[in-house]
Amino acid sequence: MYIRWIDDLLALAETKNFSRAAESRHITQSALSRRIRSLEEWVGADLVDRGTYPLELTLAGKLFCEQGREALQLLLAARAEIRQETRMPGKAIQIRAGHTLSMTFLPKWMKQFQSRHDQFNTRVVAENVLDAVTALSEGSCDLMFCYHHPLAPILLDPEKFEYLSLGHEGFIPVTAVLSSGRPAFGLPGKKTAPTPYLAYTSTTFLGRVVEVILKQVQVEPFLERCNEADMAMLLLNMACEGYGVAWVPESAATEALQNGKLAHAGPDEWNTKLEIRVYRAINNSNAALQELWQSLR
């Protein structure tokens, strides 16, 4: 049983709606439904009465919510105390960052920032955006670095969390280059010969951004989803090996584009811009974080 399943049920009890609960949990409605089903299997009873509107919890669901909330508070308090004891010494910042940003943007940004300000120690954990959001929400980190797109927003309560914009970068489709120098695949593809498409898994932020692009282009895309992954760097490497077209942050593909191993798979209408944001919890009392945030402002 995963602790986040309890949070899922609590969100459902509060909103009485799968769609709004999924939005508050930063996951898809289908993913929330699967997780509630998994929790019900673990408990051994139906927790949600799906035949009522607005949605109601069953008696078992109400009992589990009440006791689950208390258990969750105790667990989170114990974890917070333990983590406080194991924090890095001195001025230290706990950071969560999306996989790609942790490998491309973050090391350079930290070097540039610390060259102009006081030094501080960091502990960086790279993970997918949804897990990073959860970590920030639960107080498991001081800063969260992530991408943002206006049509695939990450919803965090502005009364509890604030962000700063650190820049923008392109999000582009790339493909391997043939020995002739031509791109191996192109967009939009053909109905009789769909372009092999290296896709993100359905619950990822970048996967949602690709869906936005495909809905906005003026021509109908013909793509054959042939491989899936939740990390941009993995899809980038698969594109380099000639498996198909992948959308990746431009910073991740810069070197391969420059040395001719990759090429753009389509014109600019298939691209979009990603904003790079850093978030923090407003009530975070870490003195090192407060000093850093003021410098960022």
Would you kindly provide a written description of the structure presented here, covering whatever features stand out?
It is a single chain. This protein is an alpha/beta fold and 297 residues long. The chain has three domains: 3-85, Orthogonal Bundle (Arc Repressor Mutant, subunit A), CATH 1.10.10; 92-166 and 275-296, D-Maltodextrin-Binding Protein, domain 2 (3-Layer(aba) Sandwich), CATH 3.40.190; 169-273, 3-Layer(aba) Sandwich (D-Maltodextrin-Binding Protein, domain 2), CATH 3.40.190. It has helices at residues 3-15, 18-24, 29-43, 59-85, 99-103, 105-116, 129-137, 205-216, 232-240, 250-258, 287-296; strands at residues 48-49, 56-57, 92-98, 121-127, 143-148, 161-176, 195-200, 223-229, 245-249, 262-264, 272-281. The strands form two sheets. Strands 3, 4, 5, 6, 7, 8, 9, 10 and 11 form a nine-stranded mixed sheet that branches. Strand 1 (48-49) and strand 2 (56-57) form a beta hairpin. Helix 1 (3-15) crosses helix 3 (29-43), helix 1 (3-15) packs across helix 4 and helix 2 packs across helix 3 (29-43). The longest helix is centred in the N-terminal third of the chain and has 27 residues, at 59-85. It is flat and about 65 Å long. The relative contact order is 0.14.
Task: Write a concise synopsis of the structure shown.
The protein has three domains: 3-85, Winged helix-like DNA-binding domain superfamily/Winged helix DNA-binding domain (Arc Repressor Mutant, subunit A), CATH 1.10.10.10; 92-166 and 275-296, 3-Layer(aba) Sandwich (D-Maltodextrin-Binding Protein, domain 2); 169-273, Periplasmic binding protein-like II (D-Maltodextrin-Binding Protein, domain 2, 3-Layer(aba) Sandwich). Helix content is 43%, strand content 24%.
